[in-house]
Amino acid sequence: MYSILHETDDATSVNFCLWGKFPPSINCLVTSGGKTLRFFRLNNCGNSINCHQLECLLSFTMMAPIRGMAVISLEDYPDFDALALTFDDAKLSIVNINPSTMSLNTLSLHSIEDELLREGYSKDIHHPVLCADPESRCCVFTVYGFWKAVQHRVLEGCAVERVSNIPNDVFVALANGDLYILSLKTDQANVVRNMQLTKAFEISIPCVLTSFSTNFLFVGSRLGDSQLLLNHSRILFNEDDIFLYGDDFCKSFLIEENLRQIVRTYKFELLDILPNVGPCKWLRVCNATYISDAFRKNARDVYFDMMSASGHGKDSSLCLYHRTVRPQIITSTFLDEAQQIWTIGRYYGDMHKYLLISRERSTVALELHNDMVELDIPLFCTNESTLMAGDLAEGNVAVQITPTSIVLVANDQQIDCISIDSSFPVLSASLNDPYLALLTLNGRFSFINCLQNQIFILNSMLKHEKSPITAISLYKDCSGLIQYSDNKNIEMEESSPTNEKPLFPRSDSLDCSLIKNEMDEDLATKEQFNGEDDIDAFLYGVTEKERNKPQHQHESQKHQQKISWLTISNELSNNANTEEFVERPSKIVPNFWLFFARENGNLYIYNLPNLQLVYMVKKFCQAHDVLYDDVQSAIDDEHRPSQQSFMSTPIILPQPAESLSSDTIVKPEEKIFELQVCGLGMNCGRPILSALFDDMVIKRLPCTVVIRENRFLGPNGRAPVEAHEAEDRHRQRIFPFGPLSNLSNGIFIAGAYPSILLLKRGEVRLHPMTIDGQITAFASFNNANCNNGFLYLTKKPENMMRVASLNSDIDYDCSYPHRKIPIEQTISQVVFMLQSDLILLVTSEKKSNKTVCTIVNEEKQVETHDREQNFILPSIDSYKLRVSNLLVWKSIKINKIQLFSTEDWKFVPNYEFQLDEFEVATACEEVLLTSESTVSGVKNYLALGTAINYGEEVYVRGRVVLFELIEVVPEEGMPTTRHKLKTIYDKEQKGPVTSLCSINGFLLTGMGQKIFIWQFRDNQLHGVSFLDMHFYVHHMVAFRDFALACDLYRSLSLIRYQEEFKALSLVSRDLRPTAPIPMTSQFIIDHKQLGFMLTDELANITLFNYLPEMKESIGGHVSECFIDSEHQRGIQTCYFATLDGSFGFIKPIFEKVFRRLHMLQQMMNIYVPQPAGLNPRGSRAGRPQKTGTNQQISAAKNIIDGLLVMQYMNLSSQEKTDLAKKLGTSKYQIIDDLTELIRTASHY
């Protein structure tokens, strides 16, 4: 069996967090969880005024989990900090952010892996512990847990962080989520005489704490949501001071922060959270939620949800996931021949006024109020199709662009109609108030400026007429990141103090004398400073070098500014020590830019309204990671005067000109059909450039979407580019949108695989919306009947226009759209009951224990011991089966089973099943057992297995309880009470019930080291057979006659029950002598092949086949039109979730696909660099329990690493082609393979 393992979603937990200086925002909060490293900045201009939010600027996925992190300073990089990252065993990487490309730059690698340092230990290797000194000058990490440079103490059960700028106060966060302030009382000699602990706030269960910027505190959590807190501290004055000087004077009195006798009070405010869905303890499949009736009638596929029990304690929750976006359909209308739709004009409250529906040779204009009705007065042109529509004058003027006219409508009347030469009709248009750009048939464009109710038409006559324009886009920059300046302004800035810090050098083709002079000057200055007397620094604390440093840096900036093309704006460099982390939108003057692409694949950027060329990128269609300005072509172009463009965005960098002629014959796959530039994220402050060519939407984030309906390779080779179908008339496929339900903005990508791209918090989120098939058009729609909704056109099976909205309960600002339901109790088990559409939860709470069980004369006696109030009692888990309302239990820890209804997302009221004291629910499943009361001969029951442990002196027992879900007459006003659990079997067993499942109508139970099989008849369980295993069977899963059993110390076993012989036998097992402790197992099916998947405590995923004739069978390592549905029908995809909140899948693949991807994986191991310099082959290999063994667990012969090969989709076109040639195949063949894998695993 050949398969692929792909980790689709990054971790959401936070294991480490730090504060340091990193580009592009100077001061950044750095977090790491699992394999993911993220850089955040504080955005004080978020959804509300003066509300600070965390905005993710950069995110990187490593090839191995990060085990430690520290901020350090390097002499070679004085302006920014560096990060030290540790990985398993003894690996250390020093990295920083490359300001030129905004990528993770690996500075040095250190590996201290030596068998001699293990001191004979072959297993249970400790993770490295990394520490840095307070000044961030050096770092020390442990090697194998024994070799240490610094002794590091950890306060058990809590996290500690010093309060910023307050030396005597310390934050202390306990394991239960209570935040305390520890105040140290000192005397005049600075000796601690007393300590005061005061509770200040309730937070998530913490893992790490970081305080920064005077009054901010970040709480990183692995068990709940991470939180950003604002600390309001106040100085307390005694009564004598207030009596003598007055309260107002005391409040206004300034006291230095370094005084140690000041008494303060703290008040915390929750500003923002980073959602976390980890740890995922259970992953179940349940019925799909939020499915409109329009999709249920003619379902294109089987829709379902994933369900997990997440968090712990008070941070526990029930999470429901679905990969695709499911719109809530309000109404649907059949529209024959409809091609495009637009909503334009504005009523009060920002509601849309008109709807234009474009057909092949006509346009339908509707008025939007309570209903959609045709206009009584002909305001728009309806005798030809519409190419573009939008708003000018802040929504007061509606604009319609047709091939031969421009119609302007305001105040319910047509104010102007501008005719266009019919010899060269308009092909496409781009509108951004107050500008309008038109692209005509002859490859030229006209530029229109609508300013102060006056319209100016400028016909542009640009060069390069041999290569016509193919796509245009107008962009209004409200972020302040893109700035424009000519040479005169630069010369003026050189003679005055600058507010901008240069970051990027110009290309190598420029004069480098300035750089050489600057380097010589730096060298001379450095030699002068090296001779300084160290006694001065010791006596006075400030050396001559430090006193002259600001002036020296200013001179360096002046020289760099002469050659700088890209700079950091003022808000990024000068706000490091203020509360204004991001410049407010009201202070930013918007800039306008014109982007267009020619048929030769070049990209041009003009500033507006001067229409001056400021940037040109050759062969933009190659989709390079970094876009380069062609300096040589800029010199030769007489229409481009001497000027410079200042952009602090990291997507543009200079490079030497390519030796490609503009007269080169352009291939269809290199033609750029559409450009779209828009601002996403908070305050639209993240400019995004999207381009459509070769039937792929490229964004380089990395983010690539294949919108084709059919494969790239057909029976006769490369299939035609599907975008050529509408070559004679542009049809928009990339649709930016504004407010949409709980989303502020985003991009909708139409086509055969429609998707939505979001950047709400800064991280890229791409969600497919394939539930309705191919979508041809999209438009925002705000109406009294549909608040912040949208319209879209479908293509198959019939042309429908749907009015839809998004469910506000779903969180789309995450890699996995989900709904998180707080439970506030630890969830031990979760079961979905299919027939009744109910969710059963086994929850628990802490309970103080005062009883002790002893044996007297072979009888159990329970003694109660009363203790004083301050005595700390031990806590136990007490379980209860309960069906009740969604309440908050806080006093004790009671384990209970509860029914959860998906109708109102609350617990079913008025039912409770109490488990005994000292009893623990160990297993809970919905089982299918034989029954004579049904026609099918089987019936669904709920089976519960428990273990009762009173102590060492009492033999451990257990119970098996069977419940039947029945329907009764509901109580008045409580419709969900129609469901009740009826106990039909409850009996104590001779041992603890550690696992259970059903197999062919029989109940299979694991009791310690034994497995029993039972037949349910006459409301009794009758023993049929048993099987002795090894030590402790803690997990079982069945498929037909087979079952997988996980033993705590003997890995995985395959057992089989033969009903005709009443025999339960061991078929095969994992023969590895030192296999890690197993966690869970599952079957995986590939047509006639049956495989077994196993996960263990070392995070290995192992895939087994049962092939008795083959020696190596004992183990190994770990309905779209695009998809061949006949071959995919017999293939099962296995999904998994992890403790750090990440997700992935394992899927069988065909041998031919495996051969191609396996060779691609080998090539990418060599040619594609990875973050932090990790080697994918070594980082992704399985980790054996013991080192130095002869196990070949790391040789992944039959499984593909999806995390590595999926990076192929984000390479440039040339890199894809080069790698494919080395493999002897085509890049389109590889893209087809990867696209099919993505689509088949994300259809739900």
Automatic annotation (TrEMBL):
Keywords: Nucleus. The keyword Repeat does not apply. Residues 896-1209 form the RSE1/DDB1/CPSF1 C-terminal domain. Residues 167-229 form the RSE1/DDB1/CPSF1 first beta-propeller domain. GO terms for cellular component: nucleus. Residues 327-796 form the RSE1/DDB1/CPSF1 second beta-propeller domain. This is CPSF_A domain-containing protein. It comes from Meloidogyne hapla (Root-knot nematode worm).
